[in-house]
Amino acid sequence: VFEAINRHDVPGSLISTTAEQLDILRRLADPDVRLQIDLYHMARMGEVFPLALPAALPHTAHIQFADVPGRNEPGTGSLDFSAAFALIAQSDYAGWLAAEYRPGDESGSSFDWLRRQPFSGHA
């Protein structure tokens, strides 16, 4: 897998958008190479989930997320997680979703967002 990293947090990143990832996949033409999608990096690059995710999900092996702008837990910024997770749920993606964030508060309470998400309580 390979991930697009936004150029705001990491200037000079070689790959920073989903379009660039998809272009590399097309050029490689290797079925063993897959995408790692990070909703935080997508949002920081101004990507619109309803446009970018449907093209990327069939090629995705892993998804991670954090809220924007502070890379904190969901619900602390501007990212619409319900909409993003709904798009993922409507796709054929069957892989893991991984929270990768900096707790904005005490670590234990930073997991409260889990109770508010549509996949909460599902294995």
Q: Average pLDDT value?
A: 89
Shape field: globular
Summing up helix and strand content along with how strands pair, one would put the structural category as alpha/beta
The largest beta-sheet arranges its strands as 1-2-3-4
Task: Please count the beta strands (DSSP E, at least 2 residues each).
Answer: 4
Helix fraction by DSSP (H/I, runs of at least 4): 25-40%
Question: Are there runs of 5+ residues with pLDDT below 50, and where?
Answer: none
| Beta strand % | 5-15%
Taking the sheet with the most strands, its summary is:
4 strands, parallel
Number of helices: 4
- The helix-strand sequence is EHEHHEHE
Rg, Å, rounded: 14 Å
Distance between the termini: 24 Å
Description:
It is globular and about 45 Å long. The chain has helices at 18-28, 39-44, 49-56, 81-90, and strands at 2-3, 35-38, 60-65, 97-99. Strand 1, helix 1 and strand 2 (35-38) form a beta-alpha-beta unit. Helix content is 28%, strand content 12%. The protein is an alpha/beta fold. The two termini are 24 Å apart. The chain is built from 4 helices and 4 strands. It has a 4-stranded parallel beta sheet. The relative contact order is 0.16.
List its traits.
123 residues, alpha/beta, 4-stranded parallel β-sheet, 4 helices, 28% helix, globular
Write the layout of secondary structure elements.
Layout: E1 2-3, H1 18-28, E2 35-38, H2 39-44, H3 49-56, E3 60-65, H4 81-90, E4 97-99
Parallel strand pairs: 1-2, 2-3, 3-4
TL;DR?
With 123 residues, this protein is an alpha/beta fold. The protein is 28% helix and 12% strand.
